[in-house]
Amino acid sequence: MLKSAPSILFLKAFIMTVLLCSETFSSQSFKLLRYDENYEYLKDSTKSFYDKIKYLPLNEKKDTYLSLGGEARYEYVDFNNEDWGRLNIGHNDFFLQRYDLHADWHFGKNFRIFSQIRSALQNGRKNGSRGIDEDQMNIQNLFLDVGLVNMEDQKLIVRLGRQELDYGSGRLISVREGPNARLSFTGAKIMYSYKNISVDAFAMMADSIKTGVFDNTISKQLNLWGLYSKIIIPEAGNLDLYYLGIRRDESVFEAGTAREKRHTVGGRLWKYGGGFIYNLEAAYQFGRFGNDNISAWTGSVDVGYLFENLTFKPSINLRNDYISGDHSKNDGKLGTFNPLYPKGGYFGFSPQVGPVNLIDIHPYMTLDLTSKLKMQMDVVFNWRYSLNDGVYRPSGALNRPGSSSDKRYIGTAYLTSFTYNFNKHFSLVSGLQYFHKGPFIEDIIQDAKSGVFWNIRLGFKF
Question: Alginate export domain spans which residues (predicted)?
Fold first, then answer.
């Protein structure tokens, strides 16, 4: 049963769009951040109904135009023994829905307004909605772009307003696509690009997500600021260099609760495509947590090979992460790494362990079973980095303290997932995950149980 009248309106709008334009979809790729899409190539094309909603000229010169788009997503989830059975819920199955509509207004080459509303709904979860599950209606994006320099190989753009952010592999700043409710911020960003180099500078206030209709609030203080640069190295790959700063009035780690001001400097070297593929990243953090100094770090190596000329185009990868934890509560130094705003599925599509105080070894492989069906299989072995720190959730929030246990091994996750793309607009994703509890979980949770997660998700974009 749909949860609210707005969701019914969204559903009707999407059904009408599917019926009217299913035969005339243009060839294109949808972006993770929908505001990154550009439909100027439709300016002089033969107009189908779909082309018209993607590029609707508003003047004779056709340099002022409107582009419309949206998404509907339906997901069924069955989780057995979430949090290793600590809450004694057993089977917990529920239904998630997500809808959004956006309008992209271009006024010549130098001015643009992008707006997007989103509805994320949850039905049936026994212990209620989490922050990642439900936000009945909100303004996800509403910003103004002003182009100060707009040449073919050089651009300088200022962006003001509410906006989604996503950088690198999503380790530290992610829009959080996997969960039902995505993240957004309100603030200013300056984007500069010249040939193979791009640099973003931003200052943002975090949005507080609430479950109602248009009830999200802005923090009214600077929570996130930084610089993120990308350098394309021809034939070699890509290099990302970044500095990120955060401020939080009340951060919670096993070491305690206090005000936190943290700085992160890091880099990433990566290459995807045929043959040898790699993703190498390292970051160091410093700052203040209450009266303590912060000294934390992370390092990740992900290497593999894509066999493009073999049947099923298999890729085989091995990944290894080291993420620091705190060594002592009384040494005047916090060693717990803070993942800032990470994506929810960095260690699996529904990970039970977050990117804090962790060592993992993660072999995985992918197969293109057909041109439309892709399969991935993973095994993730998880240890605590420090025995004096606990386990954390995928968001980076403390789950269970661990200093009372001298066991290091958390457990093993086994994952299999399938993605079927009917076409560029419809997709079906399903996955099965089994997390086998290790000695540490058995030590800190009485009658701990291994957990099973299964989901199936149908998505539509236009």
Answer: 65-442
